[in-house]
Amino acid sequence: MEKRLCSLLENCTSGGCGAKIGPGELSALLKGLPAFSDKNLLVGYDSSDDAAVYKIDEKRSIVTTADFFPPMVNDPKTFGRIAAANALSDVYAMGGKPVAALNLVCFPQSMHMDVLKEILTGGAEKVAEASAVLAGGHSIYDKEPKYGLAVTGIVENDKIIRNDTPEITHKLILTKPLGTGIIMAALRGEVASPEAVNKAVATMERLNKYAAEKMRGFNISACTDITGFGLLAHMLEMASDKVSIVIEPNEIPYIDEAYVYAGDFLVTAAGQRNRNHFADKADLSGLPFEIQELMFDPQTSGGLLICVSPEQADALLASIQADDAAASIIGEIINREKDVILFNTQMRGMKQYENN
Amino acid sequence: MKIIDVMGKPCPIPVIEAKRALAEQGIAGVLVKVDNIVSVQNLEKMAKGCGYGFSYVETSKDSYEVSISGDGKNAPILNDAGSGAEDFQCDPLSGKLVVVISGNTMGAGTEDLGEILIKGFIYSLTELAVPPKYVIFLNSGVYLTSEGANTIEDLKKLEGKGTEIFTCGTCVNFYNLQEKLAVGTITDMYNITEKMASASNVINI
């Protein structure tokens, strides 16, 4: 059994969302494609949102998304759960509710079919937890195993939450701790502690359903989920060219061991690619190296980044924390400054911010 | 120079292998072969963070040779401390910076400002590339290590970086803060004096 499970990771060169094609390469490529236009396509890939939204009538829209990746853990059922939680997340980030899912499977001929069965069982568990239905799928042979879901959700038209519409003064809540990419990298290098891996697995398996359900009834201006591009990229995307974001570095939740491993330089290639792509868009030089790395760390099945009105932020946070204890208010939306992302470090930042 | 071939191995394996090799007795430097520039960059962060010498060449497409020497320009340290294992930890503490904080505010002037400054100072200590070996709290400075202080989180972060935090026991008793210690350990004046005397650099606040 052990040997068989280990082969999951041994068969892959990079796992989880860290396997994503770099953001720079991707956006350049997408620009070359013909632009589609359909008045019912409310959110398409031109807006870099979490999922596509297509209006089906005056009341409702379909939220549609697909996600799959190679394993980042050895246990196939755990991998299945994580991949499914990750795929379902995009629907939650749009304010929607998943209704149906299709399995997406790539699997090596040389690997035992029992492993695939375990992966699919883990995935099905999460689809059930999401109260959605598993409706089919597609499977092919491939050198490296990969798994994920295509998910269809429903959202009421007036409840769609975009990722780039934050309102000034609104607070930002991050619902899961950062550091899963770093811990999984340490695991790959066989230097991660079992406790660290358990914490990372628990957060990756966690559905964003619970935090998303808490958002209902609150004044939410934007929401996204943290992916392989890392926290900083999603904040830049959220701010777009309209607002700036002040981040409280001390409030950023992370898995403790990830901070230590970052200090030991156990970081990922995807994290460095994120740094290469985004480093000139925010001045992180005032932050400890570890926090910088955590902000670039590729998250697999990362938390929601929710933008909520300031007077409701504490109430929403308390409600989310009841189920997702690591959730934290990590920043605030302000009028556009020269810098898109500012850091409220106690000395310089606080002054800078108060002057704004 | 030891050669480590990690072509085709994903991050952070090149970093782990390089650090492992540099930890071996008698290894002054390593030559790491990798197949992508991102691995080179991750090795560079490690080398620079540890104060090692670093250089690389692109030998052909998808082939890089990275040289890391343990005796780089800013070479740390601990070369006299004995075990290779300690060298390997990139432990930057041999500079033995000791910070002594003997008040709950910083500088002379308005108290409110002094409180803001001391919090900022302690936060900034966490940002130092080489954290202090010891931070010692005396007199009303002991409020900063006691429950409810807004400095606890940063001090814990410092601890996480290897800094030892000491609070003066006599002072804790004087201010009736027994049972309130929220970070670090209690110590006595003998130990405090010894730590200051052994420091290569003392900052007095």
Description of the molecule:
The complex is a heterodimer of chains A (356) and B (205). Chain A is built from 13 helices and twelve strands. Chain A is an alpha+beta fold and 356 residues long. In chain A, strands 1-2-3-6-4-5 form a six-stranded mixed beta sheet, with helices on one face. With 205 residues, chain B is of the alpha/beta class. In chain B, the strands form two sheets. Chain B has a five-stranded parallel beta sheet with strand order 8-7-6-5-9. In chain B, helix 4 runs parallel beside helix 5 (152-160). Chain B starts with a strand and ends with a strand. The interface between A and B is medium-sized, with 30 and 29 residues.
Shape of chain B: elongated
Question: What is the CATH superfamily classification of the largest domain in chain B?
Answer: DsrEFH-like
Say what oligomer this is.
heterodimer
What is the distance, rounded to the nearest whole angstrom, between the alpha carbons of the first and last residues of chain A?
A: 59 Å
Strand-helix topology:
The complex is a heterodimer of chains A (356) and B (205).
Chain A: H1 2-10, H2 23-31, E1 41-43, E2 52-55, E3 60-69, H3 76-93, E4 97-107, H4 113-129, E5 133-141, E6 146-156, E7 171-174, H5 180-188, H6 194-205, H7 209-215, E8 220-225, H8 231-239, E9 243-247, H9 256-263, H10 269-278, H11 289-296, E10 304-308, H12 310-321, E11 328-335, E12 341-343, H13 348-355
Parallel strand pairs in A: 4-5, 9-12
Antiparallel strand pairs in A: 1-2, 2-3, 3-6, 4-6, 7-10, 7-11, 8-10, 9-11
Chain B: E1 2-5, H1 13-23, E2 29-34, H2 37-50, E3 53-60, E4 63-69, H3 84-88, E5 97-101, H4 111-127, E6 134-137, H5 152-160, E7 164-168, H6 169-174, E8 185-187, H7 189-198, E9 201-204
Parallel strand pairs in B: 1-2, 5-6, 5-9, 6-7, 7-8
Antiparallel strand pairs in B: 2-4, 3-4
Helix pairs in contact in B: 4-5
